[in-house]
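Message: Just now I want nothing more than another pair of eyes on a protein record. I am handing you a single protein, as its sequence and its fold in token form. As I understand it, each token names a local backbone shape. Take your time, and here it is.
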Amino acid sequence: MVDESDEAVMGSTSSEPFSMRRVLKEAVGNNVSDFKLLVLTVHSVVLESEFVRIDKDSGMAVSCFDLLDDSPSAFTSMISLRYTLPEILVNGASHSVNLKFQTLGHFVSVCGSLSDDTGSRLHYICLDRRKYVRPLELMPANSESKGNVNDEEEIIFGKEVFEICKMVKDRLALPVLIDLCEKAGLDPPPCFMRLQMELKLLILELLPGVDLAKVASTCSELRYLSTSNELWKKKYLEEFEQGETTGWLFKDLFALSWKLKKMLKGVPFRIRSGTRSGIAGLFLLNPPF
């Protein structure tokens, strides 16, 4: 019988939302501009928040393929994208939100508001190209090369990706989602999801590592929230209390260590001295694999 905790811990250890990885992989492959890369990043986080992009004239759902267009006529410094919710689209209603992107020197500003209410609240973020573009360009390659846990640069850039996701989610996607639900007469997002990310992370910090992995497997929102390397470092040290901890991606390390711990139950083993950590230095007398 398979232990559900094993399935949760040994499941996907990716630190980024699936939609973002998929969209950015196509963007990097198409060699899009810095501006478009940031637009696509915001777009992917908005999709993770259950929005659907629609055409502003027809109101029909559309893909992001036009955003990947690298022709001279494609947008270069300004664009507006419109989104709605699946239930609004199914009901044939016209309520939606509009996101306006504009280049301001090294920065890209993003303003979000209800598209059919001129008096609605305006939500705003500003993204620094110099800070976020390089980490976003490296993200698809990093996601495909798991196991390179000694790469300090990957950890640093992972923090930048987490930061931009946090900013878009907390200050743009969630506020316009609440406004749209109120306008359309829909139930607001679940109470937990409406909390600021700092509060959500404080709650997640109280969970044991195995329970954190289970929570992360329930939906894209919680999977995204449980990507902090510092959070998983804390869970790793709480669970295993050993080993050098410099230069690791701790979500992957926790999964590896948990797997070895399960394998070694009841199996004689010895630890060779002089290795990077106790986990890395385990040599089984009767290896089960």
Observations:
- The first helix runs from residue 4 to 9.
- Residues 10-16, 147-153, 269-289 have pLDDT under 50 and may be disordered.
- DSSP finds twelve helices and seven strands in the chain.
- The radius of gyration is 22 Å.
